[in-house]
TrEMBL record:
SUPFAM superfamilies in UniProt: Nucleotide-diphospho-sugar transferases
The UniProt record lists the keyword Disulfide bond: yes
Protein family membership: Belongs to the glycosyltransferase 64 family.
UniProt-recorded name of the protein: Glycosyl transferase 64 domain-containing protein
Domain annotation Glycosyl transferase: ranges: 60-315
Length: 324
């Protein structure tokens, strides 16, 4: 081989490298322009990334169910009072013999006052005392409620304000439905024999996750209309409330039955993060699902039919979806 051909070869290699680098840079350039363009599509087309804000007149009440956990209650009130569209915070206090201490009350009040200063309106705080420690008390109708929408929540469940706002939007467009974040399902266990009612199994989170099917959202973290408080306490058959009192369980299933029977439709599950800040609760105890299954079948007998309606719908914020 001559020197010259070596040189040509080298030149060709250099050209090849050069071409590749050009191609690579062009590729990067195209990608960057695509990204820039994608970012501009909205403004070129005259579309707006509009953040839908509710009329500030539209608000809801946060109904916090608490029991002997002042630290959780403080955190909870502190969090929810700063969420937009909260009209009032009502605390279900089920031990009137031991009212909240002055220090606890003043801490709660100062959170609400601090939040009111940042808000367009005054956020109200009220502790509703109840004589009995009874699970039905969380659904007692409340005096001077100013809103139709109620967000019912346990003291150890924290839903970020943004997620809460999304669920309130969903509830606002379907005010008869229960709208929440903790879905559960009733599974048919055995078909009807003769004149007996079918038997059901309580389906926990894993069954919902696996099948994408649910028929209840739990009231430890859900929106519903205030009218259901009255229906639950004054119109639902008393034997259901008695059963809840005895079993110290299943008030949430009873509420799901009530709403399903009233509407003939399913609840709505909303996508969103939520944080459980307390120690693990009753649902992690052994035998929990057995109790829940027993409640389910007891309520079916009391209603004379199964009112729960399954659904596969999950509501989410369309702005957080990248493709479509
Ligand atoms: C279920 O709904 C029906 C029709 O609205 C009503 O008549 C009935 O009393 C309800 N059942 C219970 C147990 O609340």
């Amino acid at each position: 081989m001559t020197k010259g051909s070596h040189g040509r070869l080298r030149n060709r290699n250099v050209m090849w490298l050069f071409n590749n680098r050009i191609r690579f840079l062009m590729g990067v350039g195209v990608l960057i322009s695509l990204f820039v363009l994608a970012g501009k599509v909205s403004s070129i087309m005259g579309w707006h990334h509009h953040i839908y804000k509710l009329d500030s007149q539209e608000r809801f009440t946060v109904l916090i169910n608490t029991w002997r956990r002042p630290d959780l209650l403080k955190k909870s009130v502190q969090h929810y009072s700063f969420c937009p569209n909260v009209d009032a915070i009502r605390v279900v206090w089920s031990e009137s013999k031991e009212p909240p201490s002055d220090t606890l009350f003043s801490v709660l009040l100062s959170s609400v006052k601090a939040a009111s200063r940042k808000s367009t309106h005054n956020i109200k705080l009220k502790i509703d005392m109840h004589d009995e420690d009874n699970l039905n008390t969380r659904f007692k109708p409340l005096d001077d409620l100013a809103t139709n929408g109620i967000f019912s929540v346990d003291d150890d469940v924290v839903v970020p304000c943004e997620t809460l706002g999304l669920a309130f939007n969903v509830w606002s467009s379907a005010q008869d439905s229960m709208v929440g974040f903790v879905p559960r399902m009733h599974w048919l266990q055995s078909e009807t024999q003769d004149r007996e009612l079918p038997r059901y199994l309580y389906g926990g989170w894993w069954s919902v996750w696996w099948t994408g099917t649910y028929s209840m959202v739990l009231s430890k973290c859900a929106f519903f209309h205030r009218k259901y408080l009255d229906l639950y306490s004054n119109h639902m058959p008393g034997q259901i409330r008695d059963y809840v009192t005895q079993e110290r369980n299943c008030e949430d299933i009873a509420m799901s039955f009530l709403v399903a029977n009233a509407t003939g439709g399913p609840p709505i599950w909303v996508k969103g993060k939520l944080f459980e800040i307390g120690t693990t609760g009753i649902s992690s105890l052994k035998g929990h699902s057995k109790h829940r299954t027993a409640c389910l079948n007891m309520f079916v007998d009391m209603y004379g039919h199964m009112p729960l309606v399954p659904s596969n719908v999950k509501a989410m914020d369309a702005r957080s979806m990248w493709f479509w």
